[in-house]
Amino acid sequence: MPLINTGELPQKVLKPLNAAISIGFVQEQPVLDLKHVEYRQAEEDLNIVMTCKEDIIEVQNTADN
Asked: What is 2-58 written as a DSSP string?
């Protein structure tokens, strides 16, 4: 049984769920959810992390090549 159901873990310690996605251009083609190999080849990539309440936690953009 989960600790939250037994009362051992208070609800207030749980933070909102987060999600992250990466977007990039590999050989001038847009790619969603880049794999590691694609990150290394990407001309540009963008990472976005948000909460389930649509609050932005992080936006990171790089253009290494």
From this structure: -HHHHTSS-GGGPPPPEEEEEEEEETTEEEES--HHHHHH-SEEEEEEEETT--EEE
- Domain ranges for the chain: 19-65
- The encoded tokens of residue 10 equal 């208070």
pTM of the model: 0.66
* Residues with Cβ within 8 Å of residue 56, at least 6 apart in sequence: 48, 49, 50
- Asked whether the predicted pLDDT for residue 59 surpasses 90, the reply is yes
